[in-house]
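Before drawing any conclusions, I needed to go through one protein's amino acid sequence and its C-alpha cells, quoted below without any editing.
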Amino acid sequence: MPTAFSVSTDPLLAVRPVHLAGPGEVDLPSLLTADHGWFRPYNSPTHVVLVSDTNGIALSNRPGPMPLALSGIGWSVAFCHQVPAEITQSLLDEAATGLHKHPNLFTGTGRLAGHHARAALLAAGWSGHHRDGYELVSAPDRRAALSFPLEAPGSEVMLTGAAETGTWTVRFTATAPEPLLTAASLALLGPAVRRADQLPARHRNLLTTWPLTERLPHAGRSGAARARSEGVRPVPAAQQSAGPPRAVSAASASAVRRRPS
C-alpha cells in the first residue's frame, strides 16, 4: 500500500558543497518508473526493486552497509545510505538514458579509467595526489575524494565524503560504465537542494546556503559545474524517515521513498 508522507512548508535552500549536504531525499522508484519506464518483473527475486525496460540493468535493495546496488552485465555500483541524493539521482538518470543511447558502454567489458571524472573535478579546483596506494582527486576541503587503486588496478573505484556519522561511499566495480562515474562526479560540482532541518549539524558551519529562488553563485572555474548548477532539480520536500532504507517488498516497491544510498 502507498505510504502517506506529510509535506514540509520550510523553504528549500541551495547548498554547497554537495559532499557535506547530507543525504537529502529522492524517490527512486518514481524517478525510474515515471521518467524511464523501469518496472518490477512478477518473478524477480525479493531483493530486486526495478529493472530497466530493456532488462539490462537492475536496482536492488538488501541488508548491509551498502544497501542499494545498481547492477548490469559484469558490473555493479553500490551505495551506503548517507550518499547525497544528487549523486544517486544523476547516476541513475545516466544509467537509464545511456542504456538506450550507448548500450555497448553498459556491458562491463572495459576497465573504469575515469578520465572525464578526473578532468571535471580537477578543473573545478579539486587536487590530485597519491597516498597509501591510491590515486586521489580530493575536494578543496579534503572532505571528499575520488580514489583509484594504484597497486591493484582491477579493484573498485570509490567516491567518498564526510557524513553526519563517519563517511558516505559509492563503490564502482572495476568494469562499471564510465558515464556513471562521470555523472556521479559532476553531481558533486553543483549545489544540493535541502531544507534547513536536513542539513547535517556536524557540517553546518562548513556549508554555504542561499534561498533556492535566488540566482546561484558562480560555481568556480568549471563549466561543467555551472551547467550542473543551472540544471539542478529540486529534491522532494518530504519529511525524512528516521533510519536507513528498509527492505523493499514486491507490494511496496512502487511506493518506496528512501534517502539516497
